[in-house]
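Try this one yourself first.
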């Protein structure tokens, strides 16, 4: 049987079957292992673990014992417990520092566009490359998900989160490594059109009025107008398409043109899924964030008929739920 015990009660030799933190929040590779030493218990403490679920021997059976000569299968003896393994993951502090730096760069880009200045691509590209480098150093490929769990009413925080998700999803989907920065830049710039939406609408803490919603729905076309003027080939090409298409939906139910999925760039089809996932998991002032599991359930139950099911499947694989 299993029992939850405080970390202070954990002893060498005990079989751990669960921890009180998600594996995304620790650098412990497997959460089912046999404790080999006091040092391993200290590693659990260092990861912020306070409670663990351990497997205890079953009570003495009332039936006669099985003769020792009888052979057992591996499954009849219960689960196999391995040694505890840790990975040198990028730390949460590293992720948060990079995230904050990227948000600042994106914020300046939005402000430049809002003031009528040209969009500078190179500072954005540097943040994409730096983020990709850290993502590829992550053996699990999704530790970055921890840093996204915050309220993000600013478009540039949402854009930063979407950029990270986009490269993680592309890598999970088997996209060639040289293509990943393009996905990141497209995620970073997909909402650049919001820089030209009035701030009183953009920052309104609640439901938009019909006329305000019509104004908000202009941002894909505004993004296309901004990005199509760039001298950068990726910005002028892929990024412009994603900015224009990320609110389209299957069957022509989206905006601004009512395009069907076959007429939309594959990157746009993935970004439209990530756009929803990020918005729901990060939350807003007027709405608390949903857990990744609840957000995926929402996508599968309420949005599957509108979106690319392959993109949702890749997201499920990346999140690992």
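Now uncover the answer:
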């Amino acid at each position: 049987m299993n029992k939850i015990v405080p970390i202070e009660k954990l002893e060498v030799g005990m079989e751990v079957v669960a921890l009180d933190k998600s594996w995304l929040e620790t650098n412990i590779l497997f959460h089912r292992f046999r404790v080999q030493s006091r040092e391993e218990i200290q590693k659990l403490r260092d990861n912020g673990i306070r409670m663990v679920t351990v497997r205890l021997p079953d009570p003495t059976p009332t039936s006669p014992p099985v003769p020792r000569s009888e052979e057992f299968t591996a499954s009849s003896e219960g689960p196999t417990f391995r040694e505890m393994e840790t990975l040198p993951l990028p730390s949460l502090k590293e992720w948060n520092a990079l995230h904050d730096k990227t948000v600042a760069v994106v914020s300046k880009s939005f402000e430049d566009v809002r003031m009528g200045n040209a969009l500078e691509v190179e500072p954005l590209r540097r943040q994409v490359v730096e983020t990709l480098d850290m993502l590829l150093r992550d053996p699990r490929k999704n530790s970055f998900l921890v840093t996204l769990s915050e309220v993000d009413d600013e478009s540039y925080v949402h854009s930063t989160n979407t950029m990270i998700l986009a490269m993680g999803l592309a890598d999970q989907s088997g996209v060639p490594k040289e293509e990943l920065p393009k996905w990141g830049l497209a995620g970073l710039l997909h909402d650049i059109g919001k820089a030209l939406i009035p701030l009183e609408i953009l920052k309104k803490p609640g439901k938009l009025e019909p006329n305000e919603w019509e104004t908000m729905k202009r941002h894909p076309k505004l993004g296309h107008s901004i990005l199509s003027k760039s001298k950068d080939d990726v910005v002028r090409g892929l990024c412009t398409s994603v900015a224009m298409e990320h609110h389209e939906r299957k069957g022509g139910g989206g905006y601004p043109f009512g395009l069907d999925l076959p007429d939309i760039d594959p990157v746009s089809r993935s970004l439209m899924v990530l756009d929803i996932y990020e918005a729901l998991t990060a939350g807003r002032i007027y709405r608390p964030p949903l857990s990744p599991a609840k957000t995926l359930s929402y996508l599968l139950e309420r949005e599957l008929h509108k979106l690319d099911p392959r993109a949702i499947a890749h997201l499920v694989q990346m999140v690992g739920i």
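Discussion: The first helix runs from residue 38 to 46. The first strand starts at residue 2 and ends at 6.
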